[in-house]
Design a protein that fits this description.
The protein is an alpha/beta fold. The protein is 37% helix and 13% strand. The chain contains 21 helices and 14 strands. The strands form five sheets. A four-stranded parallel beta sheet has the order 8-7-10-11, with helices on both faces. A four-stranded mixed beta sheet has the order 9-14-13-12, with helices on one face. The longest helix has 21 residues. The protein is globular and about 75 Å long. Bound molecules: 2 iron/2 sulfur/6 carbonyl/1 water inorganic cluster (HC0) and iron/sulfur cluster.
């Protein structure tokens, strides 16, 4: 009944029906051709209540929400709709009432325009409902909600925790938690897929841009940024820069925004592989707890801690690359540059909302000083670019800064599902066989958008059985088997909360045709192919960091700064 990412009008109808018979038209979310899609779980189009679809005279269309001619980037053509420029400008001001960031890509506006729906101020003003602020950064504004149910579907169908539901209050259908508890006290994993799913910014997240700008303007602070692997895929598709130019473009943008130093997060992905694969090989040799789960996705970690704490011994003790980078910058870099930790302001730039939660965890603020002071999403970085009025043509490509400049293609692959396991295999096979891996570096069977992918690699007689899971819902059957003592037949299991991995993170703008998840993944694969180093363990800056600072993988200092513990 409702297909395609943008059928909000039918979604509204579905929501209204749901209000009457609570669950008969709940939305369903799924991955289709590498993108997220939504549909009704039951019923057909004919069953849906008719909703204000009517032919309207051209002149009346001038009153509908629209964007100005100057802002006409795509999808809309006010000239075709017969709007005068002045009217279009006026309407633009009115339209952006919701304050969301999907200014040029608003699903709701697109659908309303396509169906010629007239915007009218409500005859009876509905009482204002205060914003619900019951999560560290996700905010719900019921006044904007159109009851489409996409957020509920995203949480239950796309991710798995299923903590959201509709409920009725004072004759209005609202979205709340199933348990009635504040969102922070539920099994919410903070992945933010509900925010991505919302077409009208009724669900949004608190920005950290202000904090970062204040630090940039504070002469006492050295502001250091590091950019996650997946961000460059979005940058490449959005600005039409080649995969090779994407990293220098990002570094140039951040320098123009005022960052003092810009590092590549991919460096920390390489560091993670060296630590995590060393831990894995030690478990294999010493018959430790198997299978080993990866631990780099904070959404996944939240899921384990909240819903399946019994599985904690299977988790790698490695911190995520974000927190490894934070700890390395605040300790190694501060020492190298003779800086006080307090004077370093460390910002990660990521496609992820759960990383905001992770960076704020008390165990990552030794002596009250956070390892990562602020987390900006890709969207926030683009908003800062717009606010600073920086045009893409004004950005001078720059190299990332020393001493974490060199990165491997394996680390770049982290940004899409399967990348962590592929990078780990490139190291594990080499260590198990004792031979340098020169070809067969691509493990294509574990790339892509399937919820569960697997591969078995024979390394000189030792079989390494790998599973790659994305979307937490897909991890549950495997976890249940392990908890029931069933041999799942895997040694290493990568889990990323978001479907397809971080390229689908809620901190990225919503994927569209020009920037599909498949295209995002391809950018990363292309960068890996042309990388000078394709294995994390051969990154010369990583080797130097061990020589100068950490000693060896899994050393005492490495355990202190690069590993963690989990809280059931
Ligand atoms: Fe990811 Fe990561 S790959 S989770 O998606 O492991 O956000 O890009 O930064 O930490 O490196 C996100 C992306 C990261 C981390 C890395 C991992
Ligand atoms: Fe964040 Fe990536 Fe995990 Fe999504 S898959 S919650 S973007 S780390």
């Amino acid at each position: 009944c409702v297909t395609g990412p943008a059928t909000v009008i039918q979604a509204v109808a579905a929501g209204r029906q749901a209000a009457e018979s609570m669950d008969s038209f709940l939305m369903k979310g799924y991955i289709k051709e590498g993108n997220i899609d939504y549909s009704c779980s039951r019923g057909s189009m004919e069953d849906l209540p008719k909703w204000e679809f009517r032919e309207i005279p051209k002149v009346a269309r001038a009153t509908m929400p629209s964007i100005s001619l100057a802002e006409r980037k795509n999808n809309f053509n006010e000239v075709e709709l017969g709007l005068a420029e002045e009217t279009a400008r006026k309407e633009a001001r009115r339209c952006l009432k919701c304050g969301c960031s999907a200014r040029f890509t608003c699903d709701l506006r697109k659908e309303a325009s396509m169906h010629g729906i007239v915007y009218e101020e409500p005859v009876h003003e509905r009482p204002y409902i205060p914003k619900v602020d019951d999560h560290p950064f996700i905010v719900r504004d019921h006044n904007k909600c159109i009851s489409c149910g996409r957020c509920i579907a995203a949480c239950a169908e796309i991710e798995g925790p299923g903590v959201l539901t509709f409920y009725m209050k004072n004759g209005r259908q609202l979205v709340g938690t199933k348990s009635g508890l504040p969102l922070r006290e539920t099994d919410c994993v903070s992945c933010g897929q509900c925010v991505t799913a919302c077409p009208c910014a009724a669900l949004d997240y608190r920005r950290e841009r202000g904090k970062v700008v204040r630090a940039i303007n504070n002469p006492k602070k050295t502001v250091v940024g590091f950019v996650a692997p997946a961000v460059r895929s979005l940058i490449s598709n959005t600005f039409g820069v080649s995969h090779e130019e994407a990293s220098p473009f990002m570094a140039g943008l951040l320098k123009k925004l005022g960052f003092d130093k810009v590092f590549d997060f991919t460096f920390a992905a390489d560091l993670t592989i060296v630590e995590e694969t060393t831990e894995f090989l030690s478990r294999v040799q010493n018959k430790g707890v198997m299978p080993q789960f990866t631990s780099c996705c904070p959404g996944w970690i939240n899921f384990v801690e909240k819903r399946y704490p019994e599985i904690i011994p299977h988790l790698s003790t490695c911190k995520s690359p974000q927190m490894m980078m934070g700890a390395t910058v605040k300790n190694h870099y501060a020492k190298l540059m003779g800086l006080n930790k307090e004077d370093l302001f460390v910002v990660s730039i990521v496609p992820c909302l759960a990383k905001k939660y992770e960076a704020a965890r008390p165990e990552f603020a030794p002596d009250g000083i956070r390892d990562v002071d602020a987390v900006l999403t890709t969207t926030e970085m683009l908003e800062m670019m717009e606010l600073a009025d920086i045009k893409p043509s004004e950005i001078e490509p720059q190299e990332f800064d020393e001493p974490y400049k060199q990165v491997s293609g394996a680390g770049i692959l982290f940004g899409a599902s399967g990348g962590v396991a592929e990078a780990a295999l490139r190291m594990a096979v080499e260590k198990l066989t004792g031979n340098v891996l020169t070809d067969h570096l691509d493990f294509e069977e574990i790339r892509g958008f399937e919820g569960v992918k697997e591969s078995t690699v024979d390394a000189n007689g030792t079989k390494v059985r790998v599973a790659v899971v994305s979307g937490l819902k897909n991890a549950e059957p495997i976890i249940e088997k392990i908890l029931n003592g069933v041999d799942v037949g895997y040694d290493l299991i990568e889990v990323m909360a978001c479907p397809g991995g971080c390229i689908c993170g809620a901190g990225h703008p919503v994927p569209e045709k020009v920037d599909s998840l498949e295209r995002r993944q391809q950018v990363l694969v292309n960068i890996d192919k042309v990388s000078k180093y394709r294995k994390s363990q051969e990154n010369p800056d990583i080797l130097r960091l061990y020589n100068e600072f950490y000693g060896e993988p899994n050393s005492h200092l490495a355990h202190e700064l690069l590993h963690t513990h989990y809280t059931p």
